[in-house]
Design a protein that fits this description.
The complex is a heterodimer.
Chain A lengths: L12 H14 L12 H8 L3 H13 L3 E4 L3 E4 L4 H25 L4 H14 L1
Antiparallel strand pairs in A: 1-2
Helix pairs in contact in A: 1-3, 2-3
Chain B lengths: L2 E11 L4 E10 L3 E5 L6 H8 L7 E6 L2 E2 L4 H6 L1 E4 L11 H8 L8 H11 L12 H13 L5 E5 L7 H14 L6 E6 L3 H6 L2 E6 L2 E7 H7 L1 E5 L1 H6 L5 E7 L2 E6 L2 H8 L4 E3 L3 H12 L7
Parallel strand pairs in B: 3-8, 3-9, 6-7, 7-8
Antiparallel strand pairs in B: 1-2, 1-4, 4-5, 9-10, 11-13, 11-14, 12-13
Helix pairs in contact in B: 4-5
Classes of the chains: A mainly alpha, B alpha/beta.
Chain lengths: ~120, ~290
């Protein structure tokens, strides 16, 4: 597992952890059933508060990405294809939203942007 | 869950200073940073907790026990580190440890030796030849070697260089892997707490200004910067510690969402450091006196 935390980003640290772990689960670099570090050892490693790591795990659990077994720790949850697809769509949506903001800033019309998207899509 | 530390309606009056703590609690498993300017009452509060100074009123409980009735039993379970260390300069570190050791029934010599190795302490050297950082590490090694459940530290990092401060913070975090322990840590070097603290309690002029999870603080508080026109139209209740300069203003707000709703992009919002939260909160208290 890889986590890179920034203290200066506007995004709260717990959400940075949520997003990065989610992304690794979606990309399958974190496999189903794989154990995650305990909230206390993760806090120690990253030099952050236990409350932050706990909140991140709570959120991941709520969204169905990890499961916590009392006394045993937290694990990557069995893959739920509906959840997974939902998450992937959301990731695309977020990136597109960013692109739209940039496009508006640059004064592009919807047609120009769609055209650009079509070219990039076909090239990739 | 049982609170490891609990203060209720605690008062202490001196001729020129009055401490009034309505309510303050800490749970096991967490680090609380206790911040405030010099003279705010940080050391007095810690001395009251340790019963080194008698309180005038109120209740202080540690591990659920009254701190006066059960003083000895409680102190066995506390590790205490203060800003100046009560060591005898002429003794070696080893001799000093041997003097202190009999006071603790749960003393763990192996654990002490382990800390000595980790901290690179020259145990055979006289304490008068120790640097300030080495003295702090010796105090910490002693405080941690009797299986204390609560570590209370009064300005442990003052006068230490950043490397040693970081080392200390790492020791504290390693300690917190045991969720039964807790740390109560006063400091005016707030950058020590920006990362590791779970809770931040701020005291000013003998009163608690706030006590909350650090994450909530950093999520809701924002530095607000903008033009004079905006400041004049704004709801003053949203801002604390407004500083007006020739080209605009800077202030602190504890309600990021309200500011975003009302002003959107018209102002610049930045995540504050704890130091900025402290400075602006205190500036806010003096707002009526100061004129910018």
């Amino acid at each position: 597992m890889q986590l890179l935390i920034s203290n200066t980003k506007e995004e709260p640290i717990y959400l940075q952890i949520v997003h990065q772990i989610k992304e690794q689960i979606i990309r399958r670099t974190l496999a189903e059933g794989e154990p995650l570090p305990s909230i206390r050892s993760l806090a120690k490693e990253l030099n952050i508060s236990v409350i932050t790591t706990k909140r991140a795990y709570d959120e991941l659990e709520k969204e169905g990405f990890i499961v916590t077994v009392p006394g045993k720790g937290s694990f990557v949850a069995p893959i739920n294809h509906a959840v997974m697809r939902e998450a992937k769509l959301k990731m695309v949506e977020e990136k597109l939203a960013e692109a739209v903001i940039q496009a508006k800033y640059a004064g592009l019309s919807l047609e120009e942007l769609t055209e650009m998207l079509r070219i990039i899509y076909e090239e990739e | 869950m049982e609170k490891i530390l609990e203060l209720n309606q605690v008062t202490k009056r001196y001729d020129s200073f009055e401490l009034n703590i309505d309510h303050l609690t800490l749970e096991r498993g967490y680090i609380m940073g206790f911040i405030g300017p010099n003279g705010a009452g940080k050391s007095t509060t810690i001395k009251l907790i340790m019963n080194l100074v008698k309180k005038d009123g109120g209740k202080i409980r540690l591990f659920g026990l009254d701190h006066v009735e059960n003083e000895l039993a409680i102190k066995e379970r506390i590790g205490f580190v203060y800003d100046h260390f009560p060591f005898y300069d002429e003794l070696t570190a080893d001799e000093m440890k041997n003097m202190i050791r009999p006071f603790y029934r749960r003393w763990d010599e192996d654990l002490f030796q382990q800390y000595v190795r980790n901290f690179d302490l020259p145990i055979k050297k006289r304490i008068k030849h120790f640097s300030k950082g080495m003295k702090m590490k010796l105090a910490l090694a002693i405080a941690l070697s009797h299986h204390a459940e609560l570590l209370i530290m009064d300005e442990p990092t003052s006068g230490l260089d950043p490397l040693i401060r970081r080392e200390l913070l790492e020791v504290l975090q390693a300690l917190m892997e045991d969720e039964k322990k807790a740390v109560f840590f006063s400091t005016h070097i707030t950058s020590d707490l920006d990362r590791v603290a779970d809770y931040i309690t701020m005291i000013d002029r003998g009163r608690i200004l706030f006590s909350m999870p650090k994450d909530d603080l950093l999520e809701n508080y924002r530095l607000v910067k903008g033009s004079h026109e905006i400041l004049d139209k704004m709801d003053p209740a949203l801002l604390v510690g407004v500083k007006r300069h020739r080209f605009g203003f800077e202030a602190l707000s504890n309600d990021k969402k309200a500011i975003q709703r009302q002003l959107g992009d018209a102002v610049l919002l930045e995540k504050p450091t704890l130091e900025e939260v402290m400075i602006f909160s205190i500036a806010g208290r003096e707002q009526n006196v100061l004129s910018h």
